[in-house]
Amino acid sequence: MKKFNSVVVGLLIALVIGVFLSPFASSFPDGLERVAEDKGFIERAVESGLPSLIPDYAFPGVENEKLATSLAGFIGVIITFGAAMAIGKVVSRKESR
User: Fold this and answer.
1) Tens-place pLDDT, residues 22-52
2) Do residues 54 and 69 make contact, with C-beta atoms less than 8 angstroms apart?
3) Is 29 helix (H, G, I), strand (E, B) or coil?
4) Do residues 27 and 65 make contact, with C-beta atoms less than 8 angstroms apart?
5) What pLDDT does 97 receive?
6) Residue 73's CB: how many other CB atoms inside 10 A?
7) Which long-range contacts (CB under 8 A, 24 or more apart) does 73-78 make?
8) For the chain, where are the alpha helices, taking DSSP H only?
9) Integer Cα distance of 96 and 48 in angstroms
10) Nearest alpha-carbon partner for 75 in 83, 65, 64, 87
11) pTM above 0.85, yes or no
12) Contact by Cβ (8 Å): 77, 11
């Protein structure tokens, strides 16, 4: 039960950060994008061909920029949490054999 409580508390902390603090993130380009701009090869960037669920860290179709960023943070945390739980279950099954 203690392990479950720790997971829930961690998830809630991540959700608070993802939902309430993400709208305050810097709008400036990240490190790699900034270097590409500074060195003049940003135009040659190639799309991966895979569709992006949340392009530019903003949920598509939502007009309010802060709300769109909060939704992107929420969905990102949920997807990451789900992936981590799934990987954890697979690893723990292999270890218990």
Assistant:
1) 999 888 878 888 898 899 888 887 777 778 8
2) no
3) coil
4) no
5) 66
6) 25
7) 73/17, 73/18, 73/19, 73/21, 73/22, 74/15, 74/18, 74/19, 76/18, 77/11, 77/14, 77/15, 77/17, 77/18, 77/19
8) 2-16, 31-39, 65-96
9) 38
10) 83
11) no
12) yes
Q: Could you tell me if 14 and 77 are in contact, meaning their C-beta atoms sit under 8 angstroms apart?
A: yes
Nearest to 45 by CA among 65, 57, 29: 29
Q: Which two tokens stand for residue 31?
A: 């490190």
| Token pair 């961690």: residue | 10
Q: Which two tokens stand for residue 14?
A: 């991540």
Angle formed by the axes of helices 2-16 and 65-96, nearest 10°: 150
Per the model's pLDDT, the better-predicted residue between 7 and 45 turns out to be: 7
- Amino acid of residue 9: V
Domain residue ranges in the chain: 2-26+56-96
